[in-house]
Design a protein that fits this description.
The structure holds two protein chains of two kinds. By secondary structure, chain A is mainly alpha-helical. Chain A has helices spanning about 10-25, 30-55, 65-70, 85-100, 110-125, 130-140, 140-150, 155-180, 185-200, 210-215, 220-225, 230-240, 245-270, 270-295, 295-325, 345-355, 365-380, 380-405, 420-440, 440-455, 460-465, 475-480, 485-490, and one strand at about 410. The chains are: A mainly alpha, B mainly alpha. β1 (about 410) of chain A pairs antiparallel with β3 (about 460) of chain B.
């Protein structure tokens, strides 16, 4: 046995899960911060080791795993799709905790953050439909608690998430029952599932819960909840394997409209939170567009863009959070002249913003190129729309930069420069963004393998279209339950 | 002992790597807040320029001595997956080498000028970081052997230009103008990206060699289908029009004069404004596949030349007058490209860029120069009427106003493209507000309460 064979993935989840109640007992915010930071750091380290072990092709020893003992099987595991996502999610949690300003330590709940991290890591490492659905629904609880704790209106969020949960459960139940009698899921079974995914991804016109939530929640919690793109993960695991082509095309078109609409909205926003919310929505929708085009190139581009969104849009959000912790919520109607207070923050803001729109030498460049290439392969007008969304996002980012960092310089009696911890957080992300941009091959290759795995997992075309009654045969129910991602091949 | 080919490859790499290293050193210093002394920055800039320029000159000498008209340096695939590859390839030919040398020479001149002009300026380091990014972008674009490499360089030039326009960031006007420049650039970048992808689809790869067909520049000829050539060529023309401020995008050029004089000189007077023309020269075999496309190029070029000439005649500040005079010549260069006069266009471009750089760097001392001249001749400089004034006749006032408003091009773009879009989006935003208010049962937007300025600031400098 060597060190790689330890169940690092489970350890990553256990550390955050066990750490959550421990940290909740600490009353001193400074101590809670230190413990919270150490535990998220530990969880991140475990997730990196799990990823490396997976990449080296070393499987962890089952006798060290607690999963067979708890669930009777390996419920959580890495594959080509989620292997790099999990350390990135853990990294985002760690850096968000690290960059939490002293003034916000009392407000930022490290205990909730650890619990949410455990849920998120479990969600992203789960491939089985029902456990995934349960985790996705559980994942909607901490944001609700956040709103309640802050005394903000909850109705918009609650209504949307209730609809999401009902449609998700109902949709998958309908899909499963229809698959028990037939070889394909009929449209009335998959449509509720699609609707649930569209709500969770914040697709127009059911996107208002997301912008509303950005308005009311703390920015750190918001970043942790939305940036990993759990909705997109659900789409890959639950919808992509079973949906008919026309359905994927429909989702693709709705997502495309969302990407362009949200990018346009980002250019006219008058306040930073709403600007960021729309920018994020546009990127999340672009990822969804690439997934739903389901050709090799677009899928590889979308999966690469997913990594880019976590790093670049996450870093952009952290830069914004650092600004908010000093100046409060910022208007975009005037020029604030903040450059001189913190040039590093300005540079990181610009770098992460440009990386998110696919600027050369950053992680988003090749993914955007691949996505556009794949989109044009599918349909030239889709490619034009993707390029338009990217162009509008670029305009929105630079507009925000000019509004925040240029303008009349102000002086303050206290230092408003970036702190050491924030500097480490944003520079780490900047380093990863540039590294991914300058040496893109490993990342793109890994995403291409994941894309091929997803395409291989899709039900064959003849089985997704309505076959003649004589061709139908009953699938083995156990295979249907075994794995959502592999539901297609299991039926053959 | 390395062979001849290895030496050529090494020198070619030096040409490309010099500005890249400069960008990395200055960029990382800025990112880590490491303050470099002005002298150190100046030396680094000089070293990068000298190494790059010398290497380019040696490559040129070798090409002339060996009568080698085309040297390609392939660095291999940067990214390669089934169905897609992104390769870095640099081409040294009769078009790229003079343009790269021109970029180095003018950037070097401006670098030396700026090290004094910007002395003790608050944004000294920022200026040179952007300068390094610009230089890298120019060299990548000049020597690009694939459309992807060209696109990367093109983007670097665009970003550095927009940020340099907004260089004096304590005033709102430069930032506003910087954003306007960026908007136009993004539009042209989008066209270039689409053209790049279309080229990929047509030839299976982004190499110019594949797209532009056979022969060596300027004798290349393309065999691509006329319809395909028209579509790709039109996209490239839009990209070039945005970058070179051709009609209808000319409005950004005077706005760009908000930046410091060295950047105005090197970017809008000399190099950046010629980049669109360079792109058209690079793809001229493609343009010539379609007569209609050539006609459009000529019309756009002539329209730019005429409107810029009129606008330059009525400008009241020297930098704006020079920028429009520069644009007028760029319009003529574009028309020459449309007419298939490739060598003439290249020579025109090189000579014009050098002349404008000189004029721009002399611009801050214009009044002094005038006084020196008048003192030398012992009287006021003579004022002569334009030879065109008699032709204009009774329409003089109308043309004057048209020229003063710069052909109403900015107003047209703003009123008929930007503002309608903004209004639609603002209505959507209002609808969203009403919808969330309805769902929440109360006013749902905290952002409405955010004040235009934060309250932690004590005083204004």
């Amino acid at each position: 046995m060597n060190a790689w064979q330890l169940p690092w993935l489970e350890l990553a989840m256990i550390v955050s899960l066990v750490g959550s109640p421990l940290v909740s007992r600490l009353r001193d915010p400074e101590r809670a911060y230190r413990w919270g930071l150490a535990l998220t750091g530990l969880s991140f380290a475990c997730s990196v080791l799990a990823w490396i072990g997976f990449d080296l092709g070393i499987s962890s020893l089952d006798r060290w795993s607690v999963q067979p003992w708890l669930f009777g099987r390996q419920l959580f595991a890495l594959d080509d799709l989620n292997a790099p996502l999990i350390p990135l999610v853990a990294l985002l949690h760690f850096l968000t905790a690290l960059a939490t300003a002293r003034t916000h330590m009392r407000r930022f709940s490290f205990s909730w953050s650890l619990a949410a991290e455990a849920t998120r890591l479990a969600t992203f490492s789960c491939k089985e439909p029902w456990p995934l659905i349960v985790l996705l629904i559980v994942g909607t609880v901490p944001p609700y608690v956040e709103l309640v704790n802050r005394g903000r209106p909850t109705r918009v969020y609650l209504l949307h998430m209730l609809a999401f949960a009902v449609l998700l459960v109902g949709g998958w139940a309908a899909v499963e029952s229809s698959l028990a009698d037939s070889t394909h899921a009929p449209w009335w079974a998959t449509v509720p599932l699609l609707a649930a995914i569209l709500i969770r991804c914040g697709t127009v016109p059911v996107h208002c819960w997301l912008t509303d939530w950005f308005e009311h929640a703390s920015l750190g919690i918001t970043l942790l909840y939305v940036i990993p793109l759990s909705g997109v993960y659900a789409a890959v695991r639950l919808v992509l394997p079973i949906a008919d082509d026309w359905m994927l095309t429909s989702i693709g078109l709705i997502s495309l409209a969302t990407a362009v609409y949200a990018a346009g909205m980002a250019t006219i926003q008058r306040e930073t939170r709403r600007f960021f919310a729309h920018l994020f929505l546009s990127h999340a929708s672009l990822v969804l567009v690439g997934l739903e085009l389901h050709n090799d190139l677009s899928l590889t581009g979308a999966l690469s863009l997913w990594l880019s969104v976590i790093l670049a849009v996450g870093g952009f959000g952290l830069s914004l959070r650092a600004l908010e912790s000093r100046f409060g919520r910022l208007s975009l109607t005037d020029y604030h002249g903040l450059y001189e207070h913190s040039p590093t923050l300005a540079v990181c803001f610009l770098l992460t913003g440009l990386a998110s729109v696919g600027f050369p030498a950053t992680i988003g460049f090749i993914s955007t190129e691949l996505l556009v290439d794949g989109a044009i392969e599918a349909n030239p007008s889709v490619g034009v729309a993707v390029v338009a969304a990217a162009a509008l996002n670029g305009i929105a980012v630079l507009r925000a930069y000019f509004r925040l960092f240029t303008g009349a310089r102000h002086v303050s009696t206290v230092s408003l420069g970036i702190g050491l911890r924030e500097r480490i957080a944003v520079l780490t992300l900047a380093f990863l963004i540039l590294l991914g941009g300058l040496i893109p091959q490993p990342g793109i290759s890994s995403r291409q393998r994941a894309a091929q795995e997803i395409l291989a997992g899709r039900m064959p075309v003849e089985r997704r279209q309505t076959p003649p009654p004589t061709a139908r045969r009953k699938p083995p129910a156990r295979a249907v339950r075994a794995s959502g991602a592999r539901i297609g091949p299991a039926l053959t | 002992m390395p062979d001849f080919e290895t030496w050529i490859k090494f020198l070619g790499l030096v040409v490309v790597v010099s500005p890249a290293v400069l960008t990395i050193v200055l960029g990382v210093s800025a990112l880590l807040s490491l303050k470099l002394a002005e002298e150190t920055t100046t030396r680094l800039v000089s070293a990068a320029i000298v190494f790059g320029l010398l290497a380019a000159l040696v490559v040129l000498a070798i090409m002339l001595c060996t009568d080698n008209r085309h040297i390609a340096i392939e660095l291999g695939d940067w990214v390669a997956i089934p169905g897609y590859h992104f390769s870095f390839k640099f081409v040294f030919d009769r078009l790229s080498v003079p343009f790269a040398i021109l970029s180095y020479m003018l950037s070097g001149t401006i670098g030396a000028f700026a090290s004094r002009y910007m002395h003790r300026e608050r944004g000294f380091d920022r200026f040179f970081v952007l300068y390094a990014i610009f230089l890298l972008g120019m060299i990548l674009t000049s020597l690009a052997g694939t459309v992807e490499t060209l696109f990367a360089g093109w983007e670097f030039v665009g970003l550095s230009s927009a940020l340099l326009v907004a260089f004096f960031q304590e005033r709102a006007a430069p930032a506003r103008n910087g954003l306007w420049v960026w908007v136009v650039y993004r539009f042209s970048d989008a066209a270039l990206l689409l053209a790049a992808v279309a080229m990929h689809r047509l030839t299976g790869e982004g190499d110019f060699d594949q797209l532009l067909g056979h022969g060596l520049w300027p004798d290349e000829y393309s065999t691509i289908a006329v319809h395909d050539a028209f579509v790709v060529g039109l996209l490239l023309l839009v990209a070039a029009a945005g970058k070179s401020a051709l009609v209808p995008f000319s409005g950004w050029l005077p706005r760009a004069m908000e930046g410091p004089t060295p950047s105005s000189a090197v970017f809008y007077g000399a190099l950046s404004v010629h980049l669109g023309a360079f792109l058209l020269l690079r793809v001229s075999p493609l343009l010539e596949r379609s007569l209609l496309l050539c006609a459009i190029v000529v019309i756009v070029g002539l329209a730019t030349a005429v409107s810029a000439y009129l606008a330059s005649s009525v400008q009241t500040d020297i930098k704006s007058a020079l920028s429009f005079a520069s644009l007028s010549q760029v319009g003529i260069i574009v028309a020459e490209i449309g007419l298939g006069l490739r060598y003439i266009a290249l020579i025109h471009l090189l000579g014009h860029a050098c002349l404008r750089t000189l004029q721009f760097v002399r611009a801050p001392t214009l009044l002094r120069d005038y006084r020196t001249l008048e003192n030398a001749i012992g009287e006021r400089l003579p004022r002569t009427d334009s030879p065109w004034s008699r032709l204009v006749g009774g329409r003089h006032a109308w043309i004057y106003r048209w020229a003063l408003e710069r052909g109403y091009l900015d107003a047209l773009l703003l009123d008929y493209t930007v503002m309608p879009l903004v209004k639609v989006l603002q209505r959507c935003d209002a609808l969203e507000r009403r919808w969330t208010d309805f769902l929440a049962g109360e006013a749902s937007r905290e952002s409405d309460q955010v004040k235009p300025h934060f309250v932690t600031i004590e005083e204004l400098t």
